[in-house]
Design a protein that fits this description.
It is a multi-pass membrane protein. This protein has about 475 residues and is mainly alpha-helical. The protein has a single domain, classed as Up-down Bundle (Growth Hormone, Chain: A), CATH 1.20.1250. The chain contains 19 helices and no strands.
Length: about 475
């Protein structure tokens, strides 16, 4: 049999670096728009539920389309997929700019629901970007450097968390929402330009591509079958569902929590300072590369994030919220980067798009639930419980306090306890605990190799061909 062909040739790290830089600017631009619009919606309505609905409509299409997007990514060149994603999202930002411009010009009264459609469409294109970028990373970067590369991707997320809130708070005052969205548009132009400067190596055609090509539906189903038949990966995936649910709640509720004792300018400052935690975690991951025992790392960082959430029971102040949010975000790139390294090691190149997309869909299916739950949980349950004279004011209220925002603080404590319980339950599963030793890596240690793009190529069983290592 032929020798595996490296798919991380000389120059691929440079290609990854250029692509990463473009995506970094794009993330910052998107963060500007998201932060500015979120503050505007809450200021106009004063409703956590309406704020969460914007996030809901920006999340549901992403979750629903992810499996199809992953199958398409495996069929396309990953650079083409990223180009389509950035171009589509840029057009959606242009649409948002048009809505704002028309509203400010007096053509209509701008309402919150006007943003649902463009946010939903942008979410569709983001569903392509996720698996394409993850698969492109393992295609361009040698296996031994995947942890650092994933750290760089988390670094981009961390940088956007720091820069976007501060810039958005300052720019909205000076150039308005229209100007902020125009900057977002410019960031997409740069992202597309960076992709036009590089070329990605293509995966070689498999036997199935020249014979009977599987239907798109079968390729979508393959992603789930791959995970389902590997108990360790399935358990690791299930372990991420609760953290994603709680992260979604935290993302929505941090705004009303801060605004319960301060203003929008302080919120921007807190989110930016807390973003330093994510930046520090991403830098740590990019330099360190993650622990040797990756599964222990994922669960350990998850436990750390749960312990930090207990800080919601402390008296609310700018210092307390900043420290807790910063420590919480510090664990995110470490947890996600380490988990991503496991999946990139255990899943063959040719099927990563569809497998990663199904993984992302299942893990993030709870995000819309989180956004819908956040408003009613805060407005109708936890805030009334900790209001003066509330049902828990004389018991829990003696510890966490009473009044605006204290119900949300107690909810954070409950979420922290749930996170710790989740870690304990997952650790009790031997399939997850021993995942790294029981399931062979899909590629050798020193080089990333070409593998069949489609399951069952060259007469091998579909699942074993995708996971049993390089062909020889």
């Amino acid at each position: 049999m032929s020798t595996p062909t490296p798919i991380a040739p000389q120059g691929s790290m440079r290609t990854f670096g250029i692509t990463w830089a473009g995506q970094l600017l794009s993330l910052i631009g998107s963060g500007l728009t998201s932060f500015a619009l979120g503050i505007e919606v809450y200021k106009r309505t004063g409703s956590i539920t309406k704020l969460s609905l914007v996030t809901f409509f920006a999340t549901v299409p992403y979750v629903l389309l992810s499996p199809i997007a992953g199958a398409l990514v495996d069929r396309w060149n990953r650079r083409t997929a990223l180009l389509l994603s950035d171009l589509g999202a840029g057009i959606c930002s242009l649409f948002i700019w048009g809505l704002i411009a028309a509203g400010e010009a007096g053509y209509w009264k701008l309402e919150t629901w006007h943003f649902y459609l463009p946010f939903a469409l942008s979410s569709l294109f983001a569903a392509i970007r996720g698996p394409a970028l993850a698969a492109a990373t393992s295609q361009l970067v040698p296996k031994q450097h995947l942890g650092r590369a994933n750290g760089m991707l988390e670094l981009a997320n961390g940088a956007s968390q720091i820069i976007a809130p501060v810039l958005a708070g300052a720019l909205v005052v000076r150039i308005g929402l229209q100007g902020v969205v125009l900057i977002d548009l410019a960031s997409y132009v740069i992202a597309v330009g960076s992709l036009l400067l590089v070329r990605f190596p293509s995966l070689p055609p498999s036997t199935q591509q020249t014979a009977d090509k599987p239907s798109l539906l079968k390729e979508v189903a393959y992603g789930w079958n791959f995970i389902r038949t590997r108990p360790g990966l399935l358990g690791l995936l299930m372990a991420s569902i609760l953290p994603n649910l709680l992260y979604g709640l935290v993302t929505v509720l941090i705004t009303p929590l801060v605004l319960s004792f301060s203003n929008a300018e302080t919120l921007g400052l807190i989110l930016s300072l807390a973003g330093l935690g994510m930046l520090a975690g991403a830098i740590t991951m990019s330099i360190w590369g993650g622990p040797k025992r990756l599964v222990r790392g994922v669960l350990g960082f998850q436990l750390m994030s749960g312990l930090v959430l207990l800080g919601g029971g402390l008296p609310a102040s700018t210092l307390v919220v900043t420290l807790c949010a910063g420590l919480f975000l510090f664990t995110m790139p470490l947890m996600m980067g380490t988990s991503q390294s496991i999946w990139q090691r255990k899943v063959a190149q040719g099927v990563q798009g569809r497998v990663f997309a199904v993984r992302r869909m299942i893990a993030m299916a709870v995000s819309p639930v989180a956004t819908l739950l956040s408003g009613p949980l805060a407005d109708r349950v936890f805030e009334p419980l900790l209001a003066p004279g509330g049902a828990l004011a004389g018991s829990v209220g003696r510890v966490v306090g009473t009044g605006p925002g204290r119900g949300i603080g107690f909810l954070f404590v409950v979420m922290g306890v749930l996170m710790a319980v989740n870690v304990l339950v997952v650790w009790m599963s031997p399939r997850v605990r021993n995942l790294e030793s029981e399931l062979p890596d899909a590629v050798p240690d020193k080089t990333v190799t070409h593998l069949p793009e489609n399951p069952g190529a060259e007469g091998e069983p579909a699942l074993s061909a995708a996971s049993g290592g390089s062909k020889s």
